[in-house]
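Why predict the complex rather than its parts? Because the way molecules touch one another can change local conformation, and only a joint prediction can capture that. The input here totals 223 residues.
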Amino acid sequence: DVKVTQSSRYLVKRTGEKVFLECVQDMDHENMFWYRQDPGLGLRLIYFSYDVKMKEKGDIPEGYSVSREKKERFSLILESASTNQTSMYLCASSLLQNQPQHFGDGTRLSIL
Amino acid sequence: QKEVEQNSGPLSVPEGAIASLNCTYSDRVSQSFFWYRQYSGKSPELIMSIYSNGDKEDGRFTAQLNKASQYVSLLIRDSQPSDSATYLCAVFSWRGNQFYFGTGTSLTVIP
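Output of the joint prediction:
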């Protein structure tokens, strides 16, 4: 089975802090994704990566950056956290672009 | 127009009944279609993939795809209270080279 592991289930940070969310997958998947999910808004794509050191902006990249130095790891960075970034953050991976994405357990991030 | 549309519900069915969840999509060249189940406070879990027209069955779940009408549906037979969750429809299109998720349909199975 595919295993996507996110480093924290719950995280509380303060406005202005730099926040790192880590995601690791163990299935040698090419593609990795970061989403946020808010009530009534569904899943929104922040960034994705189709290969090591590659990154592409999703629908809502503002205020975020990513890093993919190794194939199995995809990090999301909040450069200067703000309260409107309080959300559930979900990492996903897939073998090929048109194949199903598999999600980690999610990180519920609160910015105070 | 949204890429993927679902009725947000809530949909309520009695235990043992058939639950029918529907999804429409806007891009005719969409190729791959998926249903995810998401329990409250949890992450989405893949339950069905379908790539060609027709029906695909897996246990109590049946996915139906009609590309001409641009809809995909999920039937849950013999619904159980443990099926109570939000069901997300997802579509992959090579045109946008991206996955598109619907906002989900909330299902409640009443014992």
